[in-house]
Amino acid sequence: MHFKLNPCALAFTSLFLVACSGGKGSFDLEDVQPNKTTGVSKEEYQDVETDKKVKEQLGELMEPALGYVVKVPVSQSGARRTEISNPEAITDEDLNKIPNHETIKSVAYQNYGWVVDKTADKTMKYVRSGYAIDVDHYGTRDKGYVFYKGITPSKELPQGPVLTYQGEWDFTSDANLDAKRPNSNPEFNGYGPGQRIATTSANAKGRTYTSEFEVDFSTKN
Fold it and tell me: What residues pair up with 185 in beta bridges, in sequence order?
C-alpha cells in the first residue's frame, strides 16, 4: 500500500485511515468508486517540507479514540503560515452529531456568514467523516472544522485472510501565504485556497475522496 499525499494535509488524512482500521474489519460502505483525478503541473503546486514529529507527539496521535476533529487554519494578521492544530479526540458516539457544529454556526451568523456541513454517506454503519465550514468567511475569524468519528471499535484483531478496507475521507491543509496557487493574485488580495485560509475537501464541490487498502493482520502488513 502506498499513498502519495501533500504533507501539509497528511497529518489529518492519515488519522482517518488509522482510525478506520478498528471498525470491525469493514467500513460498511458498498460500491465505493475511486475518483478520476487530473494531472497537476509541478509549476503550479510544490510540496512544502514540514518538521518531523517527535516520538512523543506520534504516541499521542496513535492513542485510541473514537475520532478526531481539527480546526481549519486561518492566518492571522502578520502571519505567513498557520499550520494544522493538534487534533482533538472525539468521545461521543452519536454518528449524526457534527463536532463543534453549533460553535462555528454561532460565529458565522454573528458575522453574516453561512455554514455548510457534510457527513459521509449514512450507508456506512460505523464511521463518518465530514466538516462544518463557513462558506462566506472573511477576515481572521474561525473558518470551520473537519472531522472523522467512529463507534464500536474492534477489541481484537480480525483473523483470517487479507481484508480490504474501503471508505471516504475529508481533509484540511495548512494556510500558507507563500504557497503557489493557480488563479490567485496577492497584489489585489486575490489569495487562492490554501494561502490565507486553508483548503479543505469542501472546496471541491461534488467530489468524494475515497481510499481502498488491504491489511493482513496475521503478518501485520
Answer: 190
Taking the C-alpha atoms of residue 63 and residue 28, their distance in angstroms, rounded to an integer, is 24
Label residue 104 by pLDDT band (50, 70, 90). Answer: very high
- Residue 115 β-bridge partners: 134
134 and 113 Cβ atoms separated by less than 8 Å = yes
What is the residue whose three cell numbers read 485560509? 197
Quick one: CA torsion of 87, 90, 95, 96, rounded to 10 degrees?
-80
| Separate counts of helices (H) and strands (E) for the chain | 3, 9
Question: Is it the case that residue 127 has pLDDT exceeding 50?
Answer: yes
Q: Could you give the CA distance from residue 177 to residue 150 in angstroms, rounded to a whole number?
A: 34
Domains parsed from the chain with CATH numbers: 7-215 (2.40.128.250)
DSSP letters for 109-146: HHTT--EEEEE--TT-SSEEEEEEEETT--TTS--EEE
d(CA 188, CA 186): 5
Cell 472523522 maps to which residue?
A: 148
Give start and end residues of each alpha helix (H) in the chain: 7-20, 55-61, 101-110
Instruction: Check residue 207 and give its pLDDT.
Output: 77
